[in-house]
Amino acid sequence: MSNQEYVEDEINLMDYFIVLWKRKWFIFLASVLPALIVGLTMFHGPRDYKISYTYNIGLNEKAFKVLENKFYSAENLEKLVEKLQEDGFEKYAKLAETKTIEGLKGFVSFKISPSYFEAIKPSRAKNLNELQKFQEAKGSLLVMQIGTQSKENIRGIASVCRKNFEQIIPLYSERDTLNNRIIAFKGKMAGIEEARYTLNLQLERKKSTLEKLKNFGSEGLSKLPSGIVLQFDSGAYLPLPYQVQAAETQIINLEEQIRANKENYDYYAGLLKLNEKLFSHVKKIMLSHSTLEQFRSFLITTLSEYKENNRQLLDYLKSYIKKIENKTANVMPLIEKPMVYHVAKGTVKKSAIVFMVALMMSVFAAFLWEGLKKIKSQTS
Fold first, then answer.
1. Tens digits of residue pLDDT in 36-57
2. How far is CA 19 from CA 9, 12, 297, 368, in A?
3. Dihedral pair phi/psi, residue 164, rounded to 5°
4. What does each C-alpha distance from 122 to 44, 134, 193, 203, 376 come to in angstroms?
5. HEC profile for the chain?
6. Contacts of 276 (CB under 8 A, 6+ apart)
7. Smallest Cα–Cα separation from 232: which of 256, 248, 254?
8. Does a cis peptide bond (omega within 30 degrees of 0) precede residue 114?
9. Angle between helical axes of 311-330 and 169-216 (0-180°, round to 10)
10. What is the pTM of this model?
11. 101-127, pLDDT tens digit by residue?
């Protein structure tokens, strides 16, 4: 029985070889032709080129996602498309206008160097606090890549994308910063307003208490021994002259606190008005192609309004202008004219994959063909 099974297996194996040999030209052509067509198409097709700008900007994962959301927002892409059209890059304007986010990342993409997977090792975290620190890790460099199929136009297209990233995207951050400051100043003013009633009530009570203490025993109030340090936490148990002095001191403290709160309230009110003005201007200029540098020019002209009126607001505005200048200087690439390089097409690899798939399909088709032919001959 074992010899019979061995003979049958050998016969079946020979049958397979016979089928393969019989259909060798079919298998050969069906395997080689698709791979050849794909290889020639890719070889003679347009080559992709890329250019990369590297910025010395450290971002954690959350800040990086916010940056991508701002750049790929419909509002910003509208501006990018308009600028590409103005500069004569209609093809890439349509690309930016119609593609999905994944497709757009093939045109303009951002990445962190080193990547978060290289910068952090979550598996090394010993506890939750360490894991949170790992998650807050920052990549040291930000890389913007622009990819096109035109070596002649890539620098012009990259210039449009670069200006958008360096001069327009920061305005989105300034809009958010100003809005957060407005909310913070309103919160501080609300806190002062909330405490105003309580402080005034305490002041009136202290004045009333002082008046009653003076009326209660005015004969010896001016004869206080010198060289005594008073503690007013338990003033109710002090002799009458000391209680009067404690009440007077507390009244002075409350009056000073009320005065300081009023000064702070007026200062915050001035800051609120200034920031609301700046916020309104940023929202207005963001409808056009205005840049961070143009916003800085507006801030400098605004300085003249506060030269004589309010020294504190003038100092605040000068400080804010310095921060804008630092931000402008920070969003500059490490190399102004980076090299344009071509992207590998992977012709050999992709042709080999097509050849292997076509080979398997052609072998399967050869056996199927032979089987159908055999069934047909048996039925006839």
1. 888 777 666 667 788 999 998 8
2. 15, 11, 81, 10
3. -60, -45
4. 45, 6, 47, 57, 64
5. CHHHHHHHHHHHHHHHHHHHHHCHHHHHHHHHHHHHHHHHHHHHCCCCEEEEEEECCCECHHHHHHHHHHHCCHHHHHHHHHHHHHCCCHHHHHHHHHCCHHHHHHHEEEEEECCHHHHCCHHHCCCHHHHHHHHCCCECEEEEEEEECCCCCHHHHHHHHHHHHHHHHHHHHHHHHHHHHHHHHHHHHHHHHHHHHHHHHHHHHHHHHHHHHHHHCCCCCCCCCCCCCCCCCCHHHCCHHHHHHHHHHHHHHHHHHHHHHHHHHHHHHHHHHHHHHHHHHHHHHCCCCCCHHHHHHHHHHHHHHHCCCCHHHHHHHHHHHHHHHHHHHHCCECCCCCCEEECCCCHHHHHHHHHHHHHHHHHHHHHHHHHHHHHHHHHC
6. 182
7. 248
8. yes
9. 150
10. 0.67
11. 777 887 888 988 776 544 455 555 555
How is residue 290 written in tokens? 């205005």
Tokens 């019989």 found at: 22
Tell the residue number behind the tokens 């001035």, with chain if given: 270
**Residue that has been written with the tokens 């109710």 in this structure:** 236
